[in-house]
TrEMBL record:
The chain crosses the membrane at residues 79-100, 107-126, 164-193, 205-227, 248-266, 272-292, 325-345. It comes from the Bacteria. The keyword Ribosomal protein does not apply. This is Dolichyl-phosphate-mannose-protein mannosyltransferase. Keywords: Membrane, Transmembrane, Transmembrane helix. The keyword Hydrolase does not apply.
Length: 471
């Protein structure tokens, strides 16, 4: 009982510390787009009109379902639910890593604590934490996959086969990028397998590993078909072209430490081959992502390597200098990751790095300006699915007119808008129009919608106010 209470206190303390780091970056103007989208969806679904019908997909379902549950429990508090989920998963990961290194890896309690601290301070871990629960679950699934595939090679037991399958399932259902990791893992599964399993049935081995993922994704596609919705309307994120040297910079953050950790076991194929397969799965997912752009930020595409690194450290040979070498290796990874995150060619990671050192994120200033202007106003018509920043700026939909409400639906189905205000994004010439209000009323682009005049404008937003009254 005392031990359980102490672990509970430690878990809560870790969660609060991680929440403080998220609050610090938010105070400096950084909220990732993944968190913004997930938070806005949760607010709209729980607090919005019952008639609201989302056109965006519900994939990936695990963080989405948990966010809906959290929003239902925290309705009206304006607590960023994705931050809470991300901190809870992050704290759980750190506790699990500590227990795995101490109890299974046979590291001392002090060394295990130092190793976990180095992992928690790694910029890739903190950046993944700020990216939201999707990426944290992805790291969790990758770790389960990595340790499961090593144990499967060592024992060949069914429970270890289930760990591999569960790890792949968590990855696939927690993040769209997880699909790339699953596909990237396929060619390496044969490398990791016990020779006896391949000799018995290579096809059966692969089916056993990937059946849960195929069944889960297939069932989601079936549900999507029944309800006439799209599972994944757009897998690709905004493409950020990177040169080969820029990709190498990203890979230099976590890959060297992971490769050193697995190469230490090169003379023991039963450990080296499955660890090599785990590293190959992440690198395979990263390579596929360069073609499909499922994850726009390359730093997040390589972040699951953290799970593989922990598994590789756990299987470091039990020699006299094992513990100081492990500390030195993770310290090296921490320093290299700090240097790498300063040069990642993606706006989100650069903005996060500035926010962490206390530099305000200038990119969020237009959002704060428009929310400040609208704070004391109501009847604000906005497309919340395409402009989630407005939702999280208010923290609720009480002042907004959104899909599912008569005034919004009337206007988009052919009527004349009757709301007091209309908010639309500012668009460059020739830019594709995603906002449904702008598509319905293209006159807003030239400020020529009858009955409305522009009352606010900045680099990202335009606000129009009704200039006449309806009977």
């Amino acid at each position: 009982m005392i031990r359980a209470a102490s672990w509970s206190v430690g878990f809560v303390a870790l969660t609060l510390v991680l929440l403080l780091s998220l609050g610090w970056t938010e105070a400096n103007g950084f909220v990732s787009m993944d968190v913004t989208d997930l938070w806005a969806k949760s607010v709209v679904q729980i607090e919005g009109p019952a008639q609201f019908k989302a056109t965006d997909a519900f994939y990936p379902p695990v963080p989405y379902a948990l966010s809906l549950l959290g929003q239902a429990l925290l309705t009206g508090t304006q607590v960023p639910v994705p931050f809470v989920l991300s901190a809870l998963v992050g704290a759980g990961l750190l506790v699990l890593w500590f227990l795995n290194l101490r109890d299974t890896g046979r590291f001392s309690g002090f060394t295990s604590a130092i190793l976990v601290l180095l992992l928690a301070l790694n910029p890739f871990f903190l950046r993944a934490l700020a990216d939201g629960p999707e990426m944290m679950f992805c790291i969790l699934g990758t770790w389960l996959f990595a340790r499961g595939i090593v144990n499967l090679r060592l024992t060949g037991n069914a429970p270890d086969m289930m760990k591999v399958a569960v790890g792949l399932l968590v990855v696939a259902l927690s993040d769209s990028f997880g699909l790339m990791l699953c596909l990237g893992a396929m060619p390496f599964m044969i490398v990791a397998a016990r020779p006896s399993m391949i000799a018995a049935s290579s096809t059966g081995y692969l089916v056993a590993m990937f059946y849960p993922v195929a069944a889960a994704v297939g069932s989601l596609m079936f549900v999507s078909l029944i309800f006439d919705s799209r599972l994944v309307p757009l897998l690709s994120e905004t493409v950020v072209p990177l040169t080969s040297s820029q990709h190498m910079i990203v890979l230099l953050g976590l890959c060297p430490a992971a490769l050193v950790a697995i190469l230490r076991n090169i003379l023991m194929p039963r450990l080296f081959m499955p660890l090599l397969a785990a590293v190959g799965a992440v690198l395979g997912g990263y390579t596929l992502n360069t073609f499909f752009h499922v994850e726009g930020d390359p730093a997040m595409a390589i972040a699951p390597m953290l799970g593989v690194l922990v598994a590789a450290i756990r299987f470091w040979p039990n020699l006299s200098l094992r513990e100081p070498i492990a500390i030195a290796l993770l310290s090296f990874s921490l320093v290299s990751s700090v240097l790498v995150t300063r040069y990642v060619a993606h706006d989100e990671t650069r903005n996060w790095a500035r926010a962490m050192v206390g530099i305000e994120n200038a990119a969020s200033r237009p959002d704060r300006e428009v929310i400040s202007f609208l704070r004391d106003k109501s009847e604000i018509m906005v497309d919340v699915e395409k402009n989630p920043e407005i939702v999280i700026g208010f923290g609720s939909v009480d002042q907004l007119v959104i899909a599912g409400q008569p005034s919004y639906d009337w206007a988009l189905e052919g009527g004349v808008p009757r709301t007091r205000y209309i908010v639309v994004p500012r668009q460059a010439e020739g830019q594709a129009t995603a906002d449904r209000i702008l598509r319905r009323f293209p006159q807003l682009k030239q400020s020529k919608l009858p009955g409305y005049g522009e009352v606010f404008e900045n680099s990202e937003w335009r606000v129009f106010e009704r200039s006449n009254e309806w009977n």
